[in-house]
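cache lookup: miss for this entity combination. No prior model stored, computing from scratch. Input as submitted by user K.M.:
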Amino acid sequence: MRANYRINSGVRFELLSQDQLVELFGGVLHVLEYTGLDVYHDEARDILKKAGAWVDGLRVRLPSYLVKKSLQLAPRSFTLWARDGNPKHNIHIGPGRSHFGPGPTCPNFTDIETLERRLYVKSDVPLVARVVDALPNIDFCESLGTVNDVHHELGALYEFAGMFPNTSKPIVAWSYDRFDSTGIHEIAISEAGGQAAFEKRPNYVHYCEPLSPLTSTFEAIDKLLFAARHRVPLIFTPCPISGGTGPITAAGMVIQGAAESWMGLTVAQAVQPGLPFIMGGVYSALDMSSMILAYGAPELSLMMAGITELAHFAGLPLWQTGGCTDSKTFDEQAIIEGSLSVFFSALTGGDLTHDVGYTESGMTGSVFQLAAMDEAIGYSRRITRGVDVNDDTLAVEVIHKVGPNGHYLRQPHTRRYYKNEFWYPNLCDRRNYEEWEMMGKTTMKDRTVARVRGILATHQASPVKPETERMIEKVLAEAENRVKEQ
Amino acid sequence: MSRIYEQLSTALLEGDAEQTPKLVQKALKEGLVPKDILDNGLVVGMKEVGVRFKAGDMFVPEVLMSADAMQSALQVLRPALVASGAKLIGKVVLGTVKGDLHDIGKNLVGMMCEGAGFEVIDLGFNVDPEKFVDAIKVHRPEVVGMSALLTTTMRAMALTIKAVEEAGLRERVKIMVGGAPVDAAFAKRIGADGYGSNGPAGSDLAKKLAGAA
């Protein structure tokens, strides 16, 4: 029997001390109480006012007790369910669990056949979803693009309609407005078996994006209200750009972003107490020469680690960011930037890490980047899993048994552990030179392209129910009619 | 073809060292020809082990389990093979060269060669060139395999080949080399007949060099 003995499950990582977190937390409450946000939604301002907020025109300020109450109402742990009941595709949100997936809304896409950059189209959606479904370290699905070849108001709906049947992993659904949200929700509850069944086992998350600095736009809040009323787990993800739409310092960025998130939290919890709420989002530097939001900057990892720790301190899960790059192509820069941010996200235990597969600073989605990052995530997860210390792993007996100049390959101890103790690469090459030469001297890029094409040639997700297929057709037909009438 | 061959190769593939000797016994009792049991059961299984290892679907500890299952099967089968006068596909003499105490890779090659149907004479590690020469005289193998892990002991391979030449035996045997620092270019430079990069590659090479592939 052990006594007074501490076990580290995984690698310990800590950016901020408890004192620093208390100070940051106080900073957020201060901003919400003294500065407040502009909320461009009449109904939401009424809801907030009733809840105890101070409303003056558009400006809403939140007393700190109200924010603290809202934080208490939101759960830290909950499950996002695979639509087909496959337990491997469920996502259990909770302390020490990081998950990964692509991001939404890139205008361009890296073509699967030509590898050239071109506009993202409707037929790309199922491909991305099928690759997500097949990759072992990708846990949730977004589309990596904005559908350009349908009516400009229907992109988000076509996106969900394309993803949902092609992966059973939980989907993070982005939308333009309440119309999209309604259609998306009808498809999802059709598969779940109705609203009540969906509330028990939600199979998608709704994604809303407020504006920085300190602005709750009508669309963001309107979608939030829809999600809250239908009990759809919610991601509320600001994207302040340090030096532009957010302060230049990392600490200031964390405070402003958290304030933007917690305005959404307060509305959501006032409408639907206990709604799963995941705060966001993307925090990075404004590159002071190219004026882009740098997706490959070290500051992204640092700021994301800061906001992750603050979220966990406050008892909320976080929408992390990683696996993305400013590179325009599949090259060394893409792999360095993507892998480092993936590793950092894994270390922080950020709950849902998105934008895996973003290239060109979010302008081009790439399933090749996504597949390469699947490898980096597997690699990172092996490290963060840490070292197991117990009587059997100490291996003292087997060390004695093998003795000097023996070997361990035949030992039952080796056979017992070699599959779990070691990580086995899918894409990284460890062959000797001759074999590598014999296999065609392939590069990481060659192997990644082959893997993606191999998945697309063979992998199909489990099908949706027939009634869901019919619902998808109905929702799309109704949406087409609606935009025709305009 | 008897179902027992299939069971035997499956048990081998699964590395089931308890099942394989029992299955061999059963096959012998059923009156199957020892050479057929080897060729149609065991060798088929080991061949598949090699294929899966190459494809990255099996790992070294599993290959060793299969090799163990092969050896325990051979213990039962060998007397019957000898009694029946069946000819194995050839003999391989193996050893880690002088100055080098590493023998994992060499052992793997040995097991895979046995699995491929060779008789294997393992000289162990830290083997003097003279000992290789003597073994060639005594056992008359088709193939001699040498292994080294260290860049410092690689040179002993060249010295061993030279000793074989000086003894006038070079034309009688094919020589293959392997080990972490060794490559095909080095093999050629020192006058070896081939290079194998791992266990299964080593046994494939032995088969080729013995004219049995």
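stored under new cache key. Chain A has a mean pLDDT of 96.
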